[in-house]
Amino acid sequence: MAAAAALDLGLVVAAHGRHVVVETPEGTRVHCVPRGKKSELVVGDRVRWQASGDGGVVEHIEPRRNLLFRQDDWRSKSFAANIDQLLVLVAVEPPFGEMQLTRSLIAAAAAGIPASIGLNKIDLPGADAARARLAPYRAMGLSVLEFALKTEPAAATAVLLPWLAGRTTLVLGPSGMGKSTLINRLVPEAAAQVGEISQALQTGRHTTTTTTWYWLDADRQGALIDSPGFQEFGLRQVAPTELAALMPDLAAHLGACRFANCSHRHEPGCGVRAAAARGEIGEHRMRLYESLHEELSAPPRY
């Protein structure tokens, strides 16, 4: 480690396979590869690197504050490291899936990353119905930011920028929710940054499949991390016994169970199920919990 500390410090702002773009404290971006055949580097990593030829070699990854990732039966996919907050982007149209939203929020909670929900396209007729679907999440204490990125860009910027300022925010969401529009509205130099990174990695428009870091301001104090859309979000990193504690509405009632190892599915004297019976936990939330608990309790399908 003493030798690594003597090397230049950098920030990983893009990654594609074993190739990464490392930004120096002065703002210079360098195409690097990791030492060795396997790369564990993700966007947001602070690294120690040294020059080699026209690029550089990453020799060491600094300790991470956190890492958001998803894990299924076969592999783990990392989104980004050292994140201050997560914005899960959903929209009025197309309708969002609550299971996917719940999985994202559970992964963030497991990683110790504060999360909020962004509701886009509130100018559309279904906005009130979407708000009603998100009401339980507000009741759990989650912030829900509302905006219409395409039709009311100035108002959307006024909502988002104060919340994003000075923080590193990862934006997650399936295709069609408006992530590209959000990036282009908030980062005037987004296209230039994409071109610069693509040229450094020589991969064309790699950002459609790769997580990318965008600075929000000239002082490089706030940043957005854009991650590719996804269809599946595995939670194999979460033990079934940990699941209820990662769902705030269930977690609020964990101390009321008769048994310390209650699964909240069938045991007598379950405080969580009693709260659900009183209407303090929505039926759909219990169904989500039961489905996820069953999934995480099943043996891996290797």
Q: Can you put this structure into words, describing what you see?
A:
- The longest helix is centred in the C-terminal third of the chain and has 15 residues, at 283-297.
- Mean pLDDT is 90; it is low at 204-208.
- Strands 10-9-8-11-13-12 form a 6-stranded mixed sheet, with helices on both faces.
- The chain has 3 domains: 2-61, OB fold (Dihydrolipoamide Acetyltransferase, E2P); 67-226, Rossmann fold, CATH 3.40.50.300; 240-297, Probable gtpase engc, domain 3 (Ribonucleotide Reductase Protein R1, domain 1, Orthogonal Bundle).
- It is 29% helix and 25% strand.
- It has helices at residues 2-5, 98-111, 127-139, 153-164, 179-186, 190-201, 248-251, 271-277, 283-297; strands at residues 8-16, 19-23, 29-34, 46-52, 55-61, 67-71, 76-81, 85-91, 115-120, 144-146, 168-172, 212-215, 223-226.
- It is an alpha/beta fold.
- Strand 8 (85-91), helix 2 and strand 9 form a beta-alpha-beta unit.
- It contains 9 helices and 13 strands.
Label this structure with key terms.
five-stranded mixed β-barrel, Ribonucleotide Reductase Protein R1, domain 1, OB fold (Dihydrolipoamide Acetyltransferase, E2P), 9 helices, single chain, alpha/beta, Rossmann fold, 302 residues
